[in-house]
Amino acid sequence: MVRNLRFALMLALLPVLGACEAGGGLRIGHEGGFLSAPLYAAQDGLNLSVRQFGSSSAIATALVAGALDAGFVDAESLPALAMQDGFPNRFAVAGVITYPFGATLVLREGLNVRLHELDGLTIAAADPRCKLLSTFREDAVRLGADISGATFEYLPFHAMLPALAVGAVDGAIIRGAYSAAALQGGNQILYQNWDMEAGDACCPAIVDQTVRVLLARRDSLEAAESFIEALLATNTLPPYQLRQAVADNTGIPLAILQGQPVPTFSLADDSIVNAFIHRHGKGLGNGRLGRLQK
To answer: Where are the alpha helices (DSSP H) in 83-205?
Structure first.
């Protein structure tokens, strides 16, 4: 009921969104930030009207209103969007942006300690059995650091940076996709391991590396072909060029982006929705799922 009410509220905004400035060319929506690097690098030379939104729900609403032809939504929101009546018949998954997991320990701003000085600190982690946490523990032992005096508090990933900002925790073991945002917030990275492999309930190999999903109106898929080709071409660019595109379009200092991997774009289709639904332990009715996969 809550989901349907939320979608009804979205529909109530359609007249407002329909009055958005039309602009020229293919109309693309996104949320900005470092994870939009493929879009920033691909947009030059294309006939696009690119608009930044404050949330994935706002992008979805604009898609429904016909104010956008395609939009990048947060991957975690995909199941809820796909379950809305009428959504599967009108919209298709055209691609995804992925980012490495990377076990990363960030410390709140102003806290200057070393790996062997974590005693008494409270560190956020996603789950006691999370592979990010176990990788960090193993590396700490390998590096000769005793972290037995640290206290671990378990929070969802999206709550970790806000908890750092208010001092509720001293550090957080985050997914790699949050690393640039953590640095931008004034936090410091104490430890990173980009070589870890996913494969548990905390970090499923397929799903958790997908951070953005490109949804397109089905009647706009043909018009979006050149845009999708340009996104794929960004995978051949040197990383510094992608980082520069982010810095130019967001104002994020280039120094913050140095040393961090860059996001990559790849083709995908509606079948990825199944992976996200299973990830969250949810199911779609056969009718809706069948319509989505057509």
So the answer is: 87-90, 131-142, 157-165, 179-184
